[in-house]
Structures are given as C-alpha cells and as structure tokens.
Amino acid sequence: MNRFWLLIAPALLFFYAGLVLTIMIWYPGGLPQQGWQDHLVHFSVIYAIWLVVLFIYTLFDLATFRSTLLVISRLLGAMLTCGIIAVAYFYFQPELILTPRRFLVVHLLITTLGLALWYSLIQNILPRIWKKHLYLHPLVYEQNLHVGIEQYLDVHRTLGWRFAGRYDLDSLDIHLNRATVILPVDFSLNDSELRSLFEHKRQGVEFLEYHKFIELTQRMVPLEKVSEIWFLRSVNYAPRRLSDAIKRVLDLVVGALGSLLLAILLPFLFVIIKLDSTGPVFFVQQRIGQGGKPFNVFKLRTMTSGSPTDIWTQEQDKRITRVGKFLRRLRVDELPQFWNIFLGNMSLVGPRPEQTAIVESLVEQIPYYNERHIVKPGLTGWSQLHVYANSVEGTRLKLQYDFYYIKHRSLWFDLEIILRTIFHILSLQGR
Asked: Does position 383 have pLDDT exceeding 90, yes or no?
C-alpha cells in the first residue's frame, strides 16, 4: 500500500482530530467561528513542520515498524520535538490570542495516543489482513540470489510478507490469490514451464523479476542487472534544464549559508583542532567529480598530520584524532565542502566523490563504476544513508544505491535524502 495512505494521511488526520478534541475539552462552551479559524490557520503551519519532524524520525519509513521498541522511542522523540517547535512558534508570536501552554500539552497527549494506536495497528493487525506469500523460483537458489531476499524479509517481517519457500509449478497448496513469485535474472524456460507460469498468472499469482523486487523493496539496483542495455533503458544522460537550474539555485543558497555557518564556527574549530594535534586546520584532497573531472575537496583535518590519506578509513582508525572522531560523528568536518557546493563542483545531494587513486582502482574491479559520475557528487547521498564503504565489496553494495539515485533522481528525492541525513546527524550515525 502507498505509504501516503498508510502513514502520512493518518498522521494529518490525528493532528486535526487531536486539535478538535482538545478544543472541545478546553472550551466546553464552544468557540466562535473566528476562534476556530485562528486555531486552524496557525496549527496548520505547525502541522506542516510536524510532518517534517515525523519524516526525520523515520516514522514514514515502513522499515521502522520492524521493532515495537524502535517505534515507541522514535514516536516519543518526535512528539517531544514537535512540542518544542509548537511552544517556540507561539512564544515568538505573543500577540496571538491563543492559550497554547496546557492546551498544547493536552493536544500532544491526544495526538501521540492516536498515532501510537495506529502504529500498533500497522504492526499487529494490518499485516494479517494483507499477508502475502512470497515464493522463490528454483533458479533463484541456483543463482544464489535468495540470501538477500531472505534477509530483507527478516527485517520487514511485520509488513505483510511471509516467506513460503521454493516455488513449485505442481504445488497444490500455493495461495494463488495472495502469492508473489520472484523470478531469477536472465532465465529461460521451456514451453511447458512457461504455460504453467502463465496459468498461475491467470489465477492471480503475481510474478516479479528479482531485480525489480529488489529495486521496489530495497530501493537499490542489483549489479547483476546493470548492463549497457540497462543504462540505455533506465538512465537519462541528457541535462534536465529546469530541475538542474532549480537545484543549482538551491545549491548556491545552501552553499552560501553553510559557508556563513563555517565562518561563525571556525574560531572555535581552529582552537580545538590545533590543541588536539599539530598540523593545518584544513585538509585538501583531489577527488573525481561529474564527468570524471578531478577537483579539490575541502575538509577540516580529522587525522594526524602526515598520515597516508589515499586509503580507506577503517573502524577504529588510528589515524583519526580525538577531536577528529567528534567532528566526524557530527559531520562537522564536512562543513568546508559548502565552498565546493557554492563553487559548483559539488551539489548538496549526489554520490559522494571518491579519491582519484581509489577511483582508478575501482574502475578496473567494478564494471560501470565510472557511470556514477553522470551527476555531480554530493555532500550527502542516497548510498551514504545505507552503506559505509571501506572495501571493494562495500563499494559494490554502495554503487547499487548510487545507481538507484541516478535512475530516480528528482528534487523530491533530494528532499527525502536531506531529511534522512538530518536524522543521521541527530542520531550521531556519522563516521
């Protein structure tokens, strides 16, 4: 089901229902028409911000609902943030003839309870109603593609999928009207097998190719399907003049604001970096940008001066200083890259730029790796939200998310990535 009707629309419903119930409790004698209008106008502004907060806390991501504890913690954190935002909104508009203090507390309690009940319904009841039985074609096992699917179903077990095992053409217990069969990559069947598949299709069985299932559910493009034909069919190399122009204007604004923020923080950052270790405050390194063109990327130094920098950063990397760990955790070391965004060799969103030497090595080991340079590299990106690559195998996985972004890139997708990045920063998931 579309997550708008499952998550976003109910959130809006509970916001406004909570407002109406709170008004009825707070003003038992009723409100004049102007009072209703005032409340609706100002709380509609607040609700728009609240939706962003719920998104940042991943409460519009169905993967969050794999764990009850995760849902509760995210919901409580989100509603606490929403309450602070609402208080700040009314604090800076004291002329409003509204009583937001205890009124807001009651409103937040009612809204939180409503959302909690709905999320409980999503976790415990709706999956039983929508349960679909997922079968894997025998060739999926032969191609060793079943592992990723089974891992995905284990994570998303509360969302209605039930792994039913191997698909047998002669099976009599297959749930025809609630069955989805995953087909392998680039397979061929004899006429008899095709007729059997077609007959099951006519009886209500859904068939999905492996790469389409992965792209639909995990929002990545399996490298097994990537080829010249895939790029011809799926990727637009031509400039998108309108969206590219809008994105460039946004990059200029964000680049200027980010550079201003860096200028404000720089005296403090200068002192703590210098006190922690000797060496320059800024770090400059050549990386590969759009079209394969090299450019210099700017960062705050987080490693000891003189350390080799042309290799991947590892867990508990001894090159990283004490202050460097703190800066990386909050992504503060990336602030100078707002200069790169303003200059135009980077964008706010896109695949992360990689070092020249590492790119040269990866191009030889991973097919089509150079195609990630179709678009400008970004300060944050879709793959950065899912994978931290410090090996060739990690880069293969990361590239699958990069190709998904390149195929589906849009301003709305960029906005989603930005909001998810905010959550990663707030939850200290940087490295």
From this structure: yes
What pLDDT score was predicted for residue 141? 87
Amino acid at position 174, single letter = I
Q: What is the DSSP letter of 368?
A: T
Between 7-16, 79-88, 132-141, 373-382, the lowest mean confidence (pLDDT) is in: 132-141
30 dihedral zone (left: phi>0; alpha: psi -120 to 50; beta): left
Q: Please write the tens of the pLDDT for every residue from 221-250.
A: 999 889 999 999 889 888 888 989 999 999
* 12/7 Cα distance (integer angstroms): 9
* Residues 428/330, Cβ–Cβ less than 8 Å: yes
- As given in the structure block, the two tokens for residue 245 are 């122009």
Q: How far is CA 373 from CA 32, 226, 252, 377, 406, in A?
A: 60, 15, 21, 7, 9
Quick one: tokens of 350?
């896109």
Tally helices (H) and strands (E) across the chain: 17, 8
Ramachandran assignment for 160, one of left (phi > 0), alpha (psi -120 to 50 degrees), beta (any other): left
HEC string for 242-295? HHHHHHHHHHHHHHHHHHHHHHHHHHHHHHHHHHHCCCCCEEEEEEECHHHCEE
Average pLDDT score over the chain: 86
pLDDT grade for 253, boundaries at 50, 70 and 90: very high
In angstroms, the CA 250 to CA 342 distance is: 10
> What stretch of H or E contains 349?
strand 347-349
Pairing mode, if any, of strands 347-349 and 378-380? Answer: parallel
Q: What is the pTM of this model?
A: 0.83
Closest CA to 67 of 58, 79, 55: 58
> H or E element: which one contains 86?
helix 68-91
List Cβ neighbours of 34 (8 Å cut-off, separation of 6 or more): none
Average pLDDT over residues 345-367: 93
Q: Where are the beta strands (DSSP E) in 127-235?
A: 132-136, 161-166, 179-183, 206-209
